[in-house]
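Crash report, auto-generated. Payload:
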Amino acid sequence: MLAATDLVKSYGVRPVLRGVSLGAGPGECVAVLGANGAGKTTLLRVLATLSKPEGGLLSVNGIDALQHPDQARRLIGFVSHQPLVYPDLTGYENLLFYARLYGVDKQPMTSRHMLQTEHPFEGADSQRLGRDARLHIEALLRRVNLHLRAHDLTRTYSRGMLQRLAIARALIHDPVVILLDEPFTGLDQASARALSALLGEWMAAGKTLVMTTHEFARGLEGVTRAVLLRHGRIADEMSGDITPARLASWFE
Amino acid sequence: MLYLKQVLAIVRKDARVELRTRDATTAMIVFAIMAIVMLNFALRLRVDSLRPLTPGVLWVMLVFAGTLGLSRSMSAEHTNQCIDGLLMAPCDRSVIFFGKALANALFTLVIALIVTPLMAILFDESLLQWGVLLIVALGVVGYAGAGTLIATMAASTRAREVFLPILLFPLALPLVVASVVATSGFLDRLPFAQFGAWLGVVVTFLIIFWTAGTLLYEYLLEA
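Recovered output after restart:
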């Protein structure tokens, strides 16, 4: 689970986050909404330990992420607005590189990986995860429907394909907290539906999701809680039946 | 053990990209060869023998060609914001420094292996000696350490191509001077005592900047 308390962050003299507190438990999906410049991306970068806040507390599964960011990063998957993949490597090579960085390239997948995810990867490959982590990569590519283009350079991928590869990259170490920055931006309807289905699967598997968006018309089907970020503060919060019509009131 | 694997993962990734695209090495090789050939012709107009000039030309060539590689190495990490992918990895920031610096050193050493024999022919100097090659290796590794630090700083600026040489060349001046004197001493077959101290400067430079990279890289990436 993720717990942020009174996060403060400035760029120079301009305050961006002015005491943001946010919590999300297992199986929960929190959407952070706000206009451009509200501080959504900065908040997500702080939660991802990519940016250090000037004040506040951040805990991931009980680990103090500000004191021990290396340990926290093992539990966090981050899907940025950019794909974070190398254009001159293939999809497979990109994932292999990140698997090596996370130290999961040669390790058999542990029972934790299997237990935390009820249906980690669909298909026959899920039965063989323990034998070789390279199969884990192939299974991930199959799950995001990129297995047929796995050995093509990512510079030849479309925006939707890059986004799917970015998702596979973020899942390479089987994180318990997944942060998504504007994940639906630039996706066509089919890709957006596939991503919505994935979000639902992750929630069912007990993962904690936090995503930012400035769109309230799509991608919020499975969201359990929505918060409105305005001028670096949580201005409003909504749970229960979150509908575009209710959310629209925030932007009137 | 994982630390070493993570460092090697970055080196392998950079090497794979370079082998595939040859972006940095092609630019470095073409620049180095063109410059050496031009200098060979230009300098001969005023001096009878190029041999006394060889160490200086060799090191200026390596520094300039190396800078081309450094610039491309760090700008590649900013394509698709890949640097964030590295920063999200559960590793000490020094892993990233070591990985990038080792890859940069490797590419520059490859250039040195091509440039040095060429210079030996054109400048009529017996550069292919173990002593010279050792000094070249130490100097290049030291330069890659300092260059990786400065290239990381410059990469986040708009005018990175301009900032890198402006910041790096003054910093690398002691290394270049020491390397030239040490190389000259070896080529002139002087007693080691006469140029050993300069070799010491090269080694000290290497240690200082690789240690600084280990300790400071986190702060550089945060900036």
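Post-recovery validation: The CA atoms of residues 12 and 54 of chain A lie 11 Å apart.
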